[in-house]
Write a structure and sequence with these properties.
The protein contains 22 helices and eleven strands. It has 571 residues and is mostly helical. The two termini are 32 Å apart.
């Protein structure tokens, strides 16, 4: 975990001061040593807190953090394979040949963000006592903000490594020992849930009626989304549903208000069942691509709950889309590519993942043997919706002039599908052919309504037709409903850093890796027997601790799946 005090504090406050708008700081820092600035003179006014809060977001947006959100959450799944110029670390993960030397087994960038958050939580109350203009409500809102960012970092860490050191104090005191044993997945999850529950009501509900901060900063609704996700992993499905409903109800209310104020708003957002979503082809247009362009092209869309922002006038780039998705490669193929079977024969109607009417198949990716990723890479896409069987639509894509795609952490359809998953689990076991109880049918229909709305939007189905989902095709068994939700999450959230985590959650819930293996193994053509045996172990779902972390922290115990180098499947 390498909390070397002086180096870490120097990095933290250098970033914080760069993020601030203070003038003449060069002269000031040339007079006063940096450590003295940090410990005695820095934390005196609200602007100091604001600067370090901003640096927490900046750290999340760094290439090191951002790339890990995607690689940790998706690369090992059945969605991704290697593309052009992939470095060795990417190649080895894609081959399921993970070693403790792999650069993506490093977690330092996330712990740096955690330490910045811890520092704000430590110093903000002291600043509030010194600065009369810094109110208690503002202080609590800042603490809620960074507590959520810290919790999000730990959530990524435990889903990737399972057990991780839980540090809640900043590395500002040489007397403290930050080399500590790892806490268990369940302990860390319970801790971050409790943290969020404690601060949720202190968070800002809305920064301003039309402010981008409502999406690009932590709000109460962003915390609700995190809690819904965390409760889903914890198996508290009722609490998951309650938080999903708070977000869904908020979006419904927002839709109603906008509809009353701006009649033109209805051109893009429509009701699919009870859910307001951005249409693919608004008002019956013969051209699709609107929701894709709004959500992944422009960013900060109506459906977004929390996304990391990249702005033209700033020098900060989205290195995830640039390197991993190949936003500026001449071949349009990045270090990662989509698995070819995802879009094979979609137009012919024989693809196992997408119907030929599903806009996402044509928006998310393009190509055949090497399938490049369009999502986030292009600023807009447009194509005719009425393609005939066997003929793929011609997609007109509008490429970005700057590498500034926002990265979405949570959006409305993600929340809707979380709710669907929780409803299915609460319904309990239903064997094939059994009669549903009234409660089970109600929960299944609730889950189905969430999935159906997402699916109808993607397939341009506003009313029931012969090509829509039919409840009776799925609502007779728990397995059928589980697969319905899992497959729709894959289609809707493809290449957003969700799929591997979804499969790990499935394995944890079932106590078996079998269903995950059936999906993931199809992308391998060599060493399949050895891979299947190794990936059948629970430990293999998680990454190894990097060798540097093992050397720095003697209390860490390596994941058994990676001890004694028993993980090379290429020999």
């Amino acid at each position: 975990m390498k909390f070397y005090i002086n180096k870490q504090v120097t990095k933290l406050f250098s970033a914080a001061l760069l993020a601030s708008s203070l003038t003449a700081c060069d002269d000031f820092l040339s007079i006063v040593p940096l450590n003295e600035v940090v410990l005695e003179n820095y934390w005196t006014e609200e602007a100091d807190v604001t600067s370090v809060v901003n640096s927490c977001y900046a750290q999340l947006e760094s290439g090191d953090c951002l790339k890990r959100m995607l690689v940790w959450g998706e690369l090992r799944s059945d969605n991704l394979t290697t593309g052009a110029g992939a470095p060795q670390d990417i190649l080895r993960i894609a081959e399921e040949n993970l070693l403790e030397t792999n650069g993506y087994a490093k977690w330092e960038s996330f712990y740096q963000c955690i330490n910045r958050c811890n520092t704000v939580i430590h110093y903000a109350p002291q600043v509030q006592e010194k600065d009369p203009n810094y109110t208690e409500a503002e202080m609590k809102a800042n603490i809620a903000e960074v507590t959520a960012i810290r919790s999000l970092c730990y959530f990524y860490l435990i889903r990737t490594f399972r057990n991780v050191p839980l540090v809640t104090e900043p590395s500002i005191d040489d007397s403290k020992n930050y080399r500590i044993p790892a806490s268990s997945f369940d302990e860390v999850l319970a801790h971050i849930i409790a943290d969020l529950e404690a601060v949720k009501n202190d968070a800002i509900r809305i920064y301003g009626e039309y402010s981008d901060d409502n999406i690009n900063r932590i709000t109460r609704y962003a915390i609700y989304a995190m809690l819904a996700d965390m409760y889903l992993w914890q198996g508290d499905y009722q609490r998951c549903i309650e938080y999903c409903d708070l977000i869904i109800d908020y979006k419904k209310g927002q839709y109603d208000e906008l509809l009353q104020e701006y009649s033109s708003f209805v051109r893009n957002v429509e009701l699919y069942g009870d859910f307001p979503l951005i249409s693919e082809a608004p008002n019956g247009s013969s051209y699709a691509g609107t929701s894709f362009s709004e959500i992944f092209g422009k960013g900060n869309s109506f459906e977004s709950i929390f996304e990391l922002i990249f702005v033209d006038k700033e020098t900060r780039e989205n290195l995830l889309t640039k390197d991993l998705f190949g936003a500026y490669n001449s071949s349009n193929v990045g270090q990662l590519a989509a698995c070819p079977y995802l879009n094979a024969q979609v137009a012919e109607g024989t693809n196992s993942y997408f119907k030929r009417t599903d806009c996402r198949a044509f928006e998310n990716m393009s190509g055949e043997s090497t399938v490049s990723i369009r999502k986030y890479v292009v600023e807009g896409a447009e194509f005719r919706t009425n393609t005939t069987t066997g003929t793929a639509p011609t997609v007109t894509e509008y490429r970005r002039t700057a590498n500034v795609a926002n990265w979405i952490v949570y959006r409305l359809t993600d929340v809707m599908l979380m709710k669907a998953e929780a409803e299915v689990q609460l319904a309990g076991n239903v064997a094939d052919g059994s009669t549903l109880t009234p409660e089970q049918e109600a929960r299944y229909r609730s889950a189905f309504s969430c999935v159906s709305a997402v699916w109808k939007r993607a397939n341009n189905k506003r009313v029931a037709t012969t090509d829509t989902l039919v409840f009776e095709d799925y609502g007779t068994s728990r397995l059928g409903m589980e697969n319905l939700v899992l497959e729709e999450r894959q289609r809707e959230l493809m290449f957003e850093g969700k799929r591997w985590f979804d499969l790990v959650r499935l394995c944890r819930r079932e106590g078996s890796n079998t269903r995950m293996l059936d999906k993931v193994m199809q992308k391998f053509s060599e060493n399949t027997a050895a891979l299947r045996i190794r990936l059948s172990a629970e430990d293999a779902l998680y990454y190894p601790y990097h060798e540097n972390e093992l050397k720095a922290n003697p209390y860490l115990v390596q994941n058994p799946a990676y001890k004694n180098d028993n993980i090379n499947t290429t020999e």
